[in-house]
Structures are given as structure tokens and as C-alpha cells.
Design goal:
alpha+beta; 2 helices
Length: about 90
């Protein structure tokens, strides 16, 4: 029996001036396009990544937040969602 892939969405909300990520939500989603539509009004970027790169990508988010904070960019630039599928 062939297993269906599970879709996981990891949202990392970053705020300017804070040392850590405010919140990370990880949950299963069935339809990537539906999630993109939900995130669009909140100006959260959705990116597809490899499941093996999830930890590195979260670390990259934290590093980018530090860089953005130094340049005082608007909070919308700090929001990004990572999407990957796992079997």
C-alpha cells in the first residue's frame, strides 16, 4: 500500500527588535494553494523547502531577522512561512 505524503506548514513569525522568534506553528495541511491564499493578506511569504532542510531554514529565519532588525525594515519583511512535504 502506497503512503500519501503529509504536508507540513511551519510558520515563523518574527518581529523587529526581538531576540527570538515570536512563535512557530507546525501543522498538517492538505492544500498548499489554499494556505497561500490565507497567508497573502497577512503579507507572509510561503516558501517550499526540503524536509531535511527544515532546521537549517528556521536557523536562517532567525539570522535574517537579526539582519532586518539592524536595518529597521517593516515587520512585513520579517514574516515567512516554510512549507514541506514528508512521507
Amino acid at each position: 500500500m502506497k503512503e500519501k505524503a503529509r504536508h507540513i506548514l511551519c510558520l515563523a513569525f518574527l518581529k523587529s527588535g526581538e531576540k527570538n522568534m515570536e512563535k512557530i506553528l507546525i501543522y498538517q495541511v492538505k492544500e498548499k494553494e489554499a494556505v497561500k491564499q490565507l497567508l497573502a493578506p497577512m503579507k507572509i511569504r510561503l516558501e517550499e523547502i526540503e524536509a531535511t532542510d527544515l532546521r537549517q531554514s528556521i536557523g536562517d529565519l532567525a539570522e535574517e531577522k537579526r539582519t532586518y532588525s539592524q536595518h529597521h525594515l517593516p515587520a512585513a519583511h520579517h514574516r515567512r512561512a516554510l512549507w514541506y512535504s514528508a512521507v
